[in-house]
């Protein structure tokens, strides 16, 4: 079995599990810019003890590069767990992360998310460096 058979994708406007990458279409070489990655932007994803997004990973693959570079891993560990029972805890983390990065070549931002019920999901966004 290969990972490619396990990773799902879709339009984030109609599928709540797809990671959404928000970043400029074009950036200046070597200048920092902000990227946000989230799950559930258009259709909220449940954030319960039983059903939640565990993590999001963000990568960048430069044009003509063989491998991607990991930008960041964002874990979401509070889902209402408590000794009094599921969904009674005082804290819930939302699947939303912000990264500030610099690029010196054009390429693709790639994000992967993990839902504890529905598995792995992916999305990508091209970014041009001028």
From TrEMBL:
Protease is among the record's keywords: no
Keyword annotations of the record: Electron transport, Iron, Metal-binding, Transport
Domain of life: Bacteria
GO molecular function: iron ion binding; oxidoreductase activity
All residue ranges annotated as the Desulfoferrodoxin ferrous iron-binding domain in the record: 10-123
One Pfam family hit: Desulfoferrodox
InterPro entries referenced in this protein's UniProt entry, alphabetically: Desulfoferrodoxin_Fe-bd_dom (IPR002742), Desulfoferrodoxin_Fe-bd_dom_sf (IPR036073), Desulfoferrodoxin_SOR (IPR051233)
Family named by the database record: Belongs to the desulfoferrodoxin family.
NCBIfam families: neela_ferrous
Identification of the protein by name: Superoxide reductase
Source organism per UniProt: Acetomicrobium hydrogeniformans ATCC BAA-1850
């Amino acid at each position: 079995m290969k990972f490619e058979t396990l990773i799902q994708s879709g339009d984030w406007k109609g599928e709540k599990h797809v990671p959404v990458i928000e970043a400029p279409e074009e950036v200046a070489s070597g200048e920092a810019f902000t990227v946000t990655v989230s799950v559930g932007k258009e259709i909220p994803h449940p954030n319960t003890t039983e059903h939640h997004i565990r993590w999001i990973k963000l990568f960048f693959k430069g044009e003509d590069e063989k491998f991607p570079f990991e930008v960041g891993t964002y874990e979401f560990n509070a889902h209402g767990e408590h000794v009094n029972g599921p969904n009674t805890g005082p804290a819930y983390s939302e699947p939303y992360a912000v990264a500030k990065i610099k690029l010196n070549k054009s390429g693709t931002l790639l994000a992967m998310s993990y839902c504890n019920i529905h598995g792995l999901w992916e999305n990508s966004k091209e970014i041009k460096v001028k």
